[in-house]
Structure formats: structure tokens, C-alpha cells
Amino acid sequence: MTVRLSRRHVAGLLSASTALGMIGLPLRRAWAAETITVLNWQGYGTDEKWALQAFTKATGIAVQHDYYSSEPEMITKLRTNPGAYDVAVVNSARTQQLQAEDLLMPLDLSRIPNAVGLTPALRDNPNIHIDGKAYGCAWVWGYNAIAYRQPGIQTPDSYKIFQDPAYEGRLALLDDATNSVAIGALLTAQDMNDPKDLTAVSEQLKAMKKNLKLLWSSEDQWNKGFEAKAFDLAVYWSGASVRSRRTYKLPLGFTAPKEGAIGWFDTLGVPSSSTKAEAALAFVNYMIDPAFYVEWATKVGAPASANGSAMEKLPADDLNRTTHDPALFKSMQFMGPLPDERRQAFADLWEETKAFYAR
Amino acid sequence: MQGELAGGGLRQARSGRSLKRAMPVWVGTLALLLPTYLWLTLAIFLPLLGMLVFSFLTKAPFGNAKPAFTFDQYLAFVRQPYLIDVAWTSLRLALVTTGLCMILGLAAAMALKQAASGRARTILFMLIILPFWTNGLIRIFSWTMVLREGGFIDMVIRAFWPGAPSIGLLYSEPAIIIGLVHGYLPYMILTCFISLLAIDDDLIDAARSLGARNYVIFGKIILPLALPGLISGAVLTFVPVIGCFMEPRILGGRVGVTMGTVIEDQFTSAFNWPRGAAFSFSMLALVLVVFALFSSVLRQGGIAREDG
Amino acid sequence: MTHVARAFLLGVLLFLYAPIIVMVAMAFNASPLYAMPFEFSTRWFGALAGDAVLIDSTRNSLVIAVLTAVIATILGTAASLALERKRFMGRAILRILLLPPIAIPWIISGTAMLLFFFWTGIGRGFHAMLIGHVALAIPYVVLVVGTGLKNVRVDLEEAAQSLGSTPLHAFFAVTLPLLAPSIAAAALFAFAVSLDQFVISYFLATPGYSTLPVQIYTAIRKGFTPEINAISALLLGFSMLAILAFVCLSKAGGTLERR
């Protein structure tokens, strides 16, 4: 009896799994004439459904996505999947590293019509120009600065507030070595991309221990923590601060302190192994199109466009536009490329600081 | 080679006992082991061997990097003494979690055996596994809702005692341990329960009718029989917990720094694979040392089984 | 005693279900940030109905989890038989070799697999994910089935053989039925391991193919909506119904009894 039962079970299991396998098989849908693959963070502009539909309709090019969850992972995926990607979203601080490994092709910006509107500070930024060639098209930019709960906290004017005993247990820092080192460097008036005195940086960060409640690493964690009143004071991303205020109605203020904001910009690059560079450039052009940007920024919430003319299409009092004031370009430093040794030194410093926080 | 073995098995099955003696025992053993270990070799051992090689290099051999042979990555523990603190945190979390799981798991398995039988028992058995089928990340995020100030624990307490102070466990080591125990307790309950199935209730009744006290029954009958289950459960808890990183990151806040998070940082942020790999293999070594100590203690206590 | 046992079990179940109850409750809460006070809404289930990506990836997860459970259980049970029942050189080493898949953090196994599969031409895709998932599930199966095997007496099978059964028949007739609860538990574990696994899926999936845990993991960066809670709640509900139906319909209600 038992034997028969178990045999029937096994047969049942087998046929069930075959059936499931067959449902799983027709995964490939019929694609349009040409399909390009984009490598990006998930939910970061390039994969908006409405935008892709419009793009495919206009050009006949279909777009599919693969995602990464950290920059090293993006680089690993580019290395181990030659030919798989046609467009990659690359933090400009990583462009030189990728170019050194021949993972990106130089772009002829004159073949991207919308590139004429790009802000020169980004378009011609040394981060992405090597030997006079552009290895990426500036796409969006933003900065990391201070977010604070309103009402209750006066607009802070310095990162020093992170060490103010009045905010014991109310601080959330971004769990990111480069960003933390940058804050320490700015507090000690050093070059944030190459601070010479790392001990001073470390001391500044360690002085925040009493205030520190948690280290955040995702926008989701930030929003849920702020909503639950886990912290009142934090490092935050400019674009995310707009979403938090506009979409989730969180009561926060966002400000760049006098030491300076920590700027960054992302580019759209074409991997050197792509065989569909034409289609890729068409997509890049669409991604910096003011019409697309305005819809993205107002419907969903986006960082600032590298295309100045796109920013000007937003209403003058638009939160995104006021948060990303072009005047910032004059005072703000962008995160630059880091040689391996320095990156490792930053990582070690931050790891040691975190262990100090945990003690 | 595998085909040959399978053919041998078939022939044996068809002609029954006449050929049994002709086929050495080791062929059967090999046929049982080969699929699993070939699979593990392809998916785990060979890839990890690559990582092991990396851990002796100055940098990962990509692009223009010119890696050189070095022991440096393994010396990080000496150069950066704070890592010893971190390793101790991981070990402590793993020991406490495993200990709590063993106590709760064995008790729950005994309760399951005693309190229910037949269908009710099967249903309870499944109910214990079901939370496991929910994604781990979601479970951890849900714990933040339960544990935070003004969270569900506080709400329940305040329903009975208005104005009670907040428990506010979130962002502390107890919060990490609660999350970990929750994640691994089902393993322990089930492995203990499987072991307890072997206990004959008549034996316990007989012992009791002869006047044996409960603790004697527990010590002399239940514990020795439950031991294989406790050990398997402990392995399935201790080994993954020592490398955990999601629970410390999300539930631990400032205190959530473990070997798991350090290793993850080496891969996702510092981009130093050799160092990350060296840390993982050091951790594996630590696990093996703990096991060696543990099994020699068991053997000296005379309770280890014939295997080992 | 039975009352104490029942009360204790109830306590354990409450602990196990505390976050699950919260998860389900938040699927019905209007706030996308899990904000209190609770406000009943079915909007997330509505959103889920229109989210083809999430539904597709859930189906992919289930397919891969079922296949993983079947393959890992068969392979692992066989290996466990050899490791428990046979004596041979290197048995201790083979056992220790089961530890790396669970001891080495996923991110390292995942990276290692991605590189190795790239170098050897195995590549990425469904097959690669399955290889990875099964490998991670095997140690769980071997350990759990091994625990059960310690209780199944060898002499029963030997008795059957001395009465004329072939070893294979003796195994299927005597040992397998006694081992059924352990094998079932092992399969359920393997299923759970696969359903939870995101790092390896993440590294090995081809563009356009995704699983539920990967969706959850990547969504964290931007903020996942309670849609994720909704689909998890649905999965949980269906599993409960399936289990209830299985238990009520199967005549062998006492599979977990001692034989």
C-alpha cells in the first residue's frame, strides 16, 4: 500500500514538474525587429513602461533590461557578458576604470541630436573625457546633502550638526565608503576625492557615533525609517528627497551645507562589445530628450537632467528644479574616479569606522 | 563512467541475486554519491576553487590588472585588529542563535509529538514550515514593523497597559537575534521532530511506570535519541548564521556589523574580491574549527554515534 | 502535560507568524510606506493584477523551486544513503564538503559561479540558475534525510534481502516508506531554499528573465510597494489551501506517525 502510494506520488510529482516546466518554456516573447539590452539600476528611468512603449513606437527598436545592485556588479556583468549589453548606465566616477578595460566605446556626440542641450559642466567633464573622446553621454545628476525633519529642526548650515549632542540617536548615515569619506573630508576642508589626512576624516566620522541610529543603503529603507520616526537627521540623495517630499509627503527639508554638497552624475555609455551601436545611440538620444524627461520628472520623480534645456521645461517652482539649482555647479565638487589603492583605503577606513560604531 | 555504472545497476536489477555478488559494494556506493558530488563540483567546488586562487592574489585578474601572489589578504586580521571584534560578534550571534534554536526547537518538537497526532500533527508540521516559504527579506522587513518603537509589540503591550514605556528593540543585537532565530527555528524543530519520531511512546510509559522522573526520562531516553536531530539542526543554523548579513544590516542599525556585512562590502563596494574571498575562507576555517572542537567534545562525552 | 505542550506550541506558532501577520496586514494597508494608522485598502492587489513582470517572475520562481526540490531531493537522498549506510574511505571528508555551499556567503558563491560559468561556456540562464539552486539545496537534503536514516534500522532491510528481495526492492519496500517524513521535510526545505535565493538568480538570470526574490531585492533600492506583500500573502494563502486539501484528501493522514 505504502509503496504504491509513494510511487503514485513520485509519478504525480514528475508530471506536475514537467507541466510546470512547459509553462516556463515559452518565455521568449516575439520582439520587434531590433532589441537592445540596457544595464541599469532597477526603476531608474530607462525602464519606465510608458517611455519604452513610446520609444519602440517611434523607432521600431524594442528595449529589454538587465539590472545591477552595485557598481562592482555592473562592471562584472559587463566583463563577463560581452555582446549582451548595448547601453549601460555608468556613474561618471567609474567611466575611466571601464575605459581602461576597453569596456566602453567612444561616442560621437554629434550623432546624438539632443546632446546640444547638455550642460557643458557635465558634457565636457574630465570624468568622462579621455584623450579628447567622450566615453559616455551625461544623463542625470544629483547630489548628496542633509535631510532634516520639519518642523523641529532649523535648516542646518554645516555637516557639524551630525556631531551635535542635541541629536543623540537621531542620525542616519548612508552606508557608503566614498560618501562618508567625502563628508569627513569636507568637514576638514580637504579635497573630497583625494583627502591627504585620512586620520582627520576618520576622527570626524567617529565623532558622530553617539548620534548615529542606523546606516541606510536604499531609498526604501530611508523612507520607511523616516516615516517610522527612527531618525530626524540624515544624509540623503537630492532626487530621492524630491520623491519623498512629493510622492510620499514626508515632512523633510533638504539642504546643501556650507562645506558643499557631494555631487555625482550618471552617464549613458555604449559597451564596446555592442553590435547595435546605432540603436543604442537612438535610445541615448531619447533618454536626454526634454519631452521624456519632463514626463519622467513630473510623473515619477527623477534626478536632475544633464540636459539644461530639459530642466528649463519644468515649471519654475517645481521642487525638482528648485532642488537642482544650476548655481550649485559653481560650488559643488563631483565624485571623481578613484585609483584602486585609494578606493581600498576609503573602504578600509569606513569598515573600521563602522566597527567602531558597532562597539 | 556514469553510464557504465547505471548500466551495471540495471543489469543487477534484472538478474537479481545471481549477479549481486559479482558487483562490488563500492560500485553501488559510488553510484549513489556520484550525481550529488559531480553536481556540487560543477556548481560549487570548481567555482570556489577559482575564488580560493583569487584570495591569494593582490587583485582580481581582470582588465589591465597585474595580479601578484600574496598572503596579504589573510593577514588583514592582524593588520586591522577591529576585524577580530567583528568576527567575535559573528561568532557570538551564531552561538546564541544556535543555542536558542536548540532549546526552543527541541521543546517545540517534543510538544508537537505529544500534543497532536494524525492529521492534526501533519497540519501543525506544515504550519511550522509555511512561514519559511515567504521570502526572507520580507520577513525581516516585517520584523522591523513588529520591533520598532510604537511597533506591534508596543501596541500589544499598550493595549493591556496604557502608557507603557516602549520596548523599542529595533536596531539592537537582540533584534538581530530575534530575526535570526525566527529564520532558522523551523529547521531545528523539524530535524528534532524527525529524530523524536523514533522514540517509542511505550518505552516512555514503561519508564514512567517504573517510577522514572521526567528529567531522567528526558536525559536517558529523549535527549540521546534527539541528538542526531539537534546536531543536524545546529549545523543548518550555525553555519549560515555566522555569515549572515541581511538581518544585521536591516535589524541591527548601528550595531549590525558582522563578518557577513564586511564580506558583502568587499564585493559590492570596495570591489576587492581577493579580500572578500580571503575573509570567507577564513570564516569557513572558523566553522570547521568549531565543528572539530564540538565533535571531539561529543566523542569524549561518549555520546557520539559510531559515525563521525 | 498535553496542555502545557499545546500552550507552548501555540506560543511558538505565534512567534513564527508574528512577522507573517504583519506582512499580510500591510498588504491591505493603504500606505505605501507601511505607515500607521492602518487604513484598509485592496489597491495593492489591484496593482498586482496589472503587474505582468511581478506575476511572471513569481511563476518563474515557483517553476525553479519545484524543479530544485525534485532534483535536490533525489540526488541528496541517494548521497545520504551512501553517507549513512556505507563505510568507505573519505566519508568524513565528503561530509565536510557539504558545508561550503551553506557556509560561504551567497554573494561569493554567486560571483564565483558567474565567473566559472562564463569561463566554461555554461553561460547564464534558466539552466545555470537551476544548477546553482540545486547545489545550494543538496546539503540541506543530505543532512535532513541523514537525520531520518539514523532512526531507520538497517536490519529490517537486511531481513528483507535475506528473504529474497533485491537490495533495490528491499529499499523501496522497507526503508523508503519509513524515510518518507524525512524526505518530505527535505523536499520542503529545498523548495524554501530555492524560493529564498536571490543572489545567485540575480547573477545568473538572463536579461528579461526574473524571479520573485530578485524582484524584491532590486525593488528595495527604489522602494518596494506593498504589491510585494500582496503577492506574498496570496502565495501563502494558496499554500495553506493546498496543504489543507492535501491533508484532508490523502488517506494516509498518519504519514508522520511512527511505524
TrEMBL record, chain A:
Broad class of the protein's primary localization: periplasm
A Pfam cross-reference name: SBP_bac_8
Native organism taxonomy: Bacteria, Pseudomonadati, Pseudomonadota, Alphaproteobacteria, Geminicoccales
Protein name: Spermidine/putrescine transport system substrate-binding protein
UniProt KW Transport keyword: yes
Protein keywords: Periplasm, Signal, Transport
Single GO molecular function: polyamine binding
Subcellular location: Periplasm
Record-level GO cellular component terms: periplasmic space
A GO biological process held by the record: polyamine transport
Stretches of the chain forming a coiled coil according to its record: none
Matching InterPro entries: SBP, Sperm_putr-bd, TAT_signal
From TrEMBL, chain B:
One of the record's GO cellular component terms: plasma membrane
Keyword terms of this UniProt record: Cell membrane, Membrane, Transmembrane, Transmembrane helix, Transport
Top-level taxon in the UniProt lineage: Bacteria
Segments passing through the bilayer: 24-57, 91-112, 124-146, 175-200, 221-242, 277-298
Entries under Gene3D superfamilies matching the protein: MetI-like
Entry's Gene Ontology BP terms: transmembrane transport
Stretches assigned to the ABC transmembrane type-1 domain: 87-294
Location in the cell: Cell membrane
Membrane topology reported for the UniProt record: Multi-pass membrane protein
Main location: membrane
InterPro entries noted in UniProt: MetI-like (IPR000515), MetI-like_sf (IPR035906)
Family statement: Belongs to the binding-protein-dependent transport system permease family. CysTW subfamily.
The protein's name: Spermidine/putrescine transport system permease protein
Organism encoding this protein: Arboricoccus pini
TrEMBL record, chain C:
Classification of source organism: Bacteria, Pseudomonadati, Pseudomonadota, Alphaproteobacteria, Geminicoccales
Domain of life: Bacteria
InterPro entries (UniProt xref): Bact_Polyamine_Transport, MetI-like, MetI-like_sf
Membrane spanning stretches: 7-28, 62-84, 96-119, 125-149, 170-193, 230-249
Record membrane topology: Multi-pass membrane protein
Record-linked PROSITE patterns: ABC_TM1 (PS50928)
Main subcellular localisation: membrane
Name of protein: Spermidine/putrescine transport system permease protein
